[in-house]
Design brief:
By secondary structure, the chain is an alpha/beta fold. The chain has 27 helices and 26 strands. α14 links the parallel β12 and β13. α2 packs across α18. It is elongated.
Length: about 725
C-alpha cells in the first residue's frame, strides 16, 4: 500500500433504506422494519465518524413525509456531528410503507443517489449496503462507478423462505407478501458484485449464506457488532450512574409497578419486536405452566411500541393478541407486565440494569437469531441470559460465558434454564461477572471499527475485476456537464460532407461534453447505421422513440434499467394492442420494430383517425404517449416515454442542467425534445410538422441541412465555449 493511500482520509456511504432512522430516540420495535438493523447502522456510522482516518460518513436512507410519523424523517439532511450526516432521498412517494413494497421503486433511489453523488463532486471511497434492498442500490452504483462495495445482509431471503414454508405458509402467499423470489435473486447479485460481505457470526456464513450459488468463502469477514458501553454499563458500577439514569429508572418503575402485585422479586425480562419468530408465546407458556417460577420471579415483556392493536399490521396484531390471550389463559395478572411503549434510547439500558439489580434474567427465546444484539447489551449491564441455541447466540455465549443456551421450541427447556440460574446464586454471579468482563473483549464498536477499517482500506482504489461492471461509463458521465443530442435520420445523416465535418468535431470534443443520439430506430438498427456511416458510437443511445436508453461501454451497449423501471409505470402493452386491432386504418409494423415499450403502426395522416385512437385509449383508462411522424409512422409509448422525456431523465440522473444540453432534430417525433428549456436546433431540411415551433423560445432554425445544421446550432449557441470539467454543485434537498 502506498503512503498516499495510507494517509488518505475516507469518505464512506452507508445505505439502509427501510424503516425509520434518525439520530436520536430510535423508535425500535415500532414495526417489523425498525429493529436491530436501524440501531446497528446508526452506531456503526457514529463510531466511524469518530475515527481520525475517516473524513466523512453519510447514512443514506429514505425520505418520508407522512402525517402518521414524526417530521424528523422528512429532513433531507440531518447533521449528527461534523463528520456524520443522515442523507434522506425520496423514493416511492412520501408515505411510510413496509420494505416489501419498496422493490418497485429502487431504480428511483438509484437515480437520485447517482444525482446526489455527482452533486458532491467526489465518489465515495466505500459504499456499504444493509439488507437486500440497499444491496440492489449499491450493486447498481458499483456497476456504474466501480466504487468498492461491501454488504451486510442482516437477514436473508432463502432463510426466511425455509422458515415460512416450515410454518406452513403457502408459497403463493409468501410470494405475494414478501416478493421472496425477487429478493433471493437480488441477494445472489449482491454476492456477485460485492467486494466484501460482513457477517456477525460464522454460523451466518455456513448456514445462511451456504445455500447461495454465488457464495465464496473468501468474500466473507466476521466482524461482530458492538455495544455502547457508555450506555450499557454494569448495574453495580455506581460511579457511572448518573442523575438522568436514576430519573428514567423511576419512570420504568412507575410503568411496571401497576402490573405487579409483588414488586421485590427477580425480573425475567425480554425485549423484542412483536414477531412470531421471536417466540414470545414460548416464553409466556414456559412461565405460565411453571407455578414455582411464578413464585420466584415476575415477567416483563417489552414487545415494541403500540397504540391500538387492532390497527397494527397482521403479524404484529396476531402476536400481541396471542400475548394477551396467554396472559389471560394462565391468569398472569399481577405477575406479568406488557407496557405499551418505552424510550429505546434512555429506558432500555435501565431495563437491563433493573433486571440485574433484582437478580433476574434476560431471555432471548427467538426460534432463529442471526446475531442477538440484546444478548451483548444484557452482558454489558451484568444480567445473565437464557438464549436460543441457534445462530448468533452460540458465538455470543461461547465468548461471553454469561448464560445458558436452550432448545426454545420446548417451553419446558426455557423454564428449566430460568429456574437453574435463579436458584443458583453462584452461577448467577459468575454469569453476571463474565458478561461484564468479556463483552469488553469481544463486542465493542471501537473494536468493530478497527477491524472494519483494516478490511476496507484493502479495497480502496482497487479496480473492479467483474466483466459486467462498466465503471468508466459512470465516471465519464459524472465528469460531463454538457451534452449534444441529435436525431439520426435526416438530421445527423443525409449529407456526407457535413457528416464528416461533424464527426471531426465530435472526435475533438472536450472531456466535459458528451454525445448522444435520440432516434426512432431500434438500438440494433441505430448501432448498424452509425457504424456504416463511420459515426463514433455515442456515449448514450436513446432508441425506439425514447422508450429505451443505452450507455456505451467500449462499444458494448448497456441497457438502462432505471429508465425501464420509470417508463413501465401503468404501461399495458397487450391491452393496448388488443384495443387497436379494431381499426382498419392501422397496419402493424414489422416485428423487428416492435419493442417492450413501443407499439408501432403504419397509417395515413388523418387528424380524425388520431382523435379516435386517443379517445379509445382514454375511454379504457390507458395513459399513453401517441407520436405521429414523417406522415406515416404512428408510435404508442408509455406516457412517461418520449425522446424529450428520456433526455430530461438523463439530465436529472447525471445532474446536467437543461441549458447545458443541445438537441437537434427534423421531424414530429423530435418535437417534444426541441421544446422547453433545452437548446433546440432544427435543421433546414425539417418536415412541416415542426412549423408551429417557429419563433419559439430556445429553438434555432438553421439555414443548413442535416449535420451542417447541427454544427451551425453549436456555433449559434456558442456551445463549446467554457465547458466546465468540474461538477455542478447542488444542495442535497434537490434530490427529494
Amino acid at each position: 500500500m502506498s503512503e498516499n493511500k495510507e494517509n488518505k482520509k475516507l469518505y464512506i456511504q452507508l445505505y439502509s433504506l427501510h424503516g425509520l432512522i434518525r439520530g436520536h430516540n430510535l423508535e425500535l420495535g415500532r414495526d417489523a422494519d425498525t429493529g436491530g438493523q436501524t440501531k446497528y447502522v446508526l452506531e456503526l456510522a457514529n463510531t466511524l465518524s469518530m475515527d481520525p482516518r475517516v473524513e466523512k460518513v453519510e447514512l443514506v436512507t429514505r425520505l418520508i413525509k407522512d402525517k402518521i410519523i414524526s417530521d424528523d424523517y422528512s429532513l433531507p439532511v440531518e447533521k449528527i456531528n461534523d463528520k456524520f450526516d443522515i442523507v434522506r432521498i425520496r423514493c416511492g412517494g412520501g408515505k411510510y410503507i413496509r420494505k416489501e413494497l419498496l422493490w418497485n421503486h429502487l431504480e428511483e433511489f438509484v437515480d437520485k443517489s447517482t444525482k446526489y453523488i455527482k452533486s458532491r463532486g467526489r465518489l465515495p471511497d466505500i459504499i456499504h449496503s444493509h439488507y437486500a434492498d440497499a444491496g440492489y442500490v449499491c450493486s447498481e452504483l458499483t456497476k456504474f462507478f466501480g466504487i468498492p462495495f461491501i454488504h451486510t445482509g442482516h437477514s436473508l431471503g432463502r432463510d426466511k423462505l425455509r422458515k415460512l414454508i416450515n410454518d406452513g405458509v403457502p408459497i403463493e402467499e409468501i410470494e405475494k407478501r414478501y416478493k421472496i423470489t425477487h429478493r433471493i435473486e437480488i441477494e445472489e447479485n449482491v454476492l456477485y458484485f460485492a467486494d466484501l460481505i460482513i457477517t456477525s457470526t460464522y454460523q451466518e456464513i455456513r448456514q445462511q449464506y451456504g445455500g447461495y450459488k454465488n457464495t465464496n468463502e473468501e468474500l466473507f469477514k466476521v466482524i461482530p457488532p458492538g455495544v455502547d458501553l457508555e450506555k450499557f454499563y454494569p448495574y453495580n458500577n455506581h460511579r457511572l450512574i448518573q442523575e438522568e439514569a436514576i430519573r428514567f429508572k423511576g419512570i420504568i418503575a412507575e410503568k411496571m409497578i401497576k402490573f405487579f402485585v409483588t414488586v421485590n422479586k427477580p425480573l425475567i425480562l425480554t425485549l423484542c419486536r412483536p414477531d412470531k419468530r421471536k417466540n414470545i408465546s414460548g416464553l409466556i407458556t414456559a412461565y405460565g405452566e411453571d407455578k414455582a417460577l411464578q413464585q420466584k420471579a415476575n415477567l416483563a415483556i417489552f414487545a415494541g411500541i403500540r397504540e391500538d392493536i387492532q390497527t397494527m399490521p397482521d403479524n404484529e396484531r396476531e402476536v400481541l393478541t396471542e400475548i394477551l390471550l396467554l396472559m389471560d389463559k394462565y391468569n398472569l395478572y399481577g405477575k406479568m407486565a406488557i407496557p405499551k411503549r418505552h424510550d429505546t434510547q434512555h429506558e432500555v439500558p435501565e431495563l437491563y440494569r433493573i433486571a440485574a439489580e433484582t437478580g433476574g434474567v434476560f431471555v432471548n427465546a427467538a426460534l432463529t437469531e442471526p446475531f442477538g444484539l440484546t444478548l451483548i447489551e444484557a452482558a454489558g449491564t451484568g444480567v445473565p441470559v437464557v438464549a436460543t441455541n441457534d445462530g448468533g447466540p452460540r458465538d455470543i455465549i461461547a465468548n461471553c460465558k454469561n448464560g445458558l443456551l436452550v432448545d426454545v421450541s420446548d417451553p419446558k427447556n426455557i423454564a428449566a434454564a430460568l429456574n437453574k440460574i435463579l436458584d443458583e446464586e453462584q452461577l448467577w454471579n459468575d454469569f453476571s461477572r463474565n458478561g461484564i468482563e468479556n463483552v469488553k473483549k469481544f463486542y465493542t464498536w471501537d473494536a468493530h471499527v478497527k477491524s472494519y477499517l483494516s478490511e476496507i482500506t484493502k479495497l480502496v482504489g482497487k479496480e473492479k475485476t467483474k466483466s459486467d461492471t462498466f465503471a468508466p461509463v459512470g465516471k465519464k458521465l459524472l465528469d460531463m456537464d454538457k451534452f449534444i443530442v441529435s436525431d439520426i435520420d435526416n438530421t445527423l445523416l443525409g449529407d456526407a460532407d457535413s457528416l464528416t465535418e461533424f464527426v471531426n468535431l465530435i472526435n475533438e470534443l472536450p472531456g466535459g461534453i458528451g454525445f448522444a443520439v435520440a432516434t426512432g430506430r431500434t438500438v440494433q438498427s441505430a448501432y448498424k447505421v452509425l457504424n456504416e456511416n463511420n459515426v463514433p458510437i455515442p456515449d448514450v443511445i436513446i432508441s425506439s422513440v425514447g422508450s429505451e436508453i443505452y450507455y456505451n461501454y467500449k462499444g458494448e451497449l448497456i441497457y438502462s434499467n432505471g429508465w425501464d423501471a420509470h417508463v413501465s409505470y401503468l404501461w399495458k402493452r397487450d391491452k393496448i394492442f388488443d384495443l387497436l386491432k379494431q381499426f382498419d386504418f392501422l397496419k402493424y409494423q414489422e416485428s423487428d420494430t416492435q419493442r417492450k415499450f413501443k407499439i408501432s403502426y403504419y397509417t395515413e395522416e388523418n387528424k380524425e383517425n388520431l382523435r379516435i385512437i386517443r379517445e379509445t385509449l382514454i375511454k379504457n383508462k390507458l395513459k399513453v404517449n401517441i407520436i405521429f411522424s414523417h406522415g406515416q409512422f404512428l408510435d404508442i409509448l408509455p406516457y412517461r416515454a418520449s425522446k424529450g422525456k428520456a433526455i430530461r431523465y438523463l439530465s436529472y440522473r447525471w445532474n446536467i442542467p437543461h441549458e447545458n444540453i443541445l438537441v437537434a432534430g427534423d421531424s414530429g417525433n423530435d418535437e417534444e425534445m426541441l421544446k422547453g428549456d433545452l437548446l433546440g436546433v432544427i435543421v433546414a431540411n425539417y418536415s412541416c410538422e415542426l412549423d408551429p415551433l417557429k419563433g419559439g423560445k430556445g429553438i434555432y432554425f438553421s439555414n443548413r441541412p442535416y449535420a451542417g445544421g447541427i454544427i451551425d446550432g453549436i456555433n449559434y449557441y456558442n456551445f463549446l465555449k467554457d465547458s466546465k470539467e468540474t461538477k455542478i454543485e447542488q444542495k442535497p434537498n434537490n434530490f427529494n
